[in-house]
Amino acid sequence: MSVRLDEMDRKILGELQEDAGQSLDEIARKVGSSKTPVWNRIRKMREAQVIRRQTVLLDPEALGLEACFFVLIRTSEHEADWQKKFLKTLRNRPEVLEAHRLAGDIDYILKVRVQNARAYDTFYQSLISEVKIYNVTALLSMEEIKATTQLPL
């Protein structure tokens, strides 16, 4: 279900996506409004779950997480119990930054951040010991060309 947003809401969201640490005064100035109406709009967008949470983006390489793998998973298991266990396993693994169920030949794709190839192998061995997987293909990202959390508004 989409929420009806006007141009001012979109401007505010754009500013928050750029830097959620800005003061209300800064945001209001940039969007051409005053502090109280901006605060009210942000509050309403939080209540409507347009704004889900506020967080901080960290530099993975600065933290020693230099390897990014895209993991393609095929499974021969499609029962509800297997899926529940698989999803629980993924959610409990901090290395898994994203997980998507796909249409097509590949069932799932994961974005995994680890220190190096040896750390990926440890992750892989742990994953296949927890859940039965038919086929796993890991692709090492050689260079991150674009990464953003900003949605097109």
TrEMBL record:
Gene3D superfamilies: 3.30.70.920, Winged helix-like DNA-binding domain superfamily/Winged helix DNA-binding domain. GO terms for cellular component: cytosol. The keyword Repressor does not apply. Residues 5-66 form the HTH asnC-type domain. GO terms for biological process: regulation of DNA-templated transcription; response to amino acid. The keyword Transcription applies. PROSITE patterns: HTH_ASNC_2 (PS50956). One of its GO terms (molecular function) is sequence-specific DNA binding. InterPro entries: ArsR-like_HTH (IPR011991), AsnC-type_HTH_dom (IPR000485), Dimeric_a/b-barrel (IPR011008), Tscrpt_reg_AsnC-like (IPR019888), Tscrpt_reg_AsnC/Lrp_C (IPR019887), WH-like_DNA-bd_sf (IPR036388), WH_DNA-bd_sf (IPR036390). Keywords: DNA-binding, Transcription, Transcription regulation. This is DNA-binding transcriptional activator DecR. It comes from Albidovulum aquaemixtae.
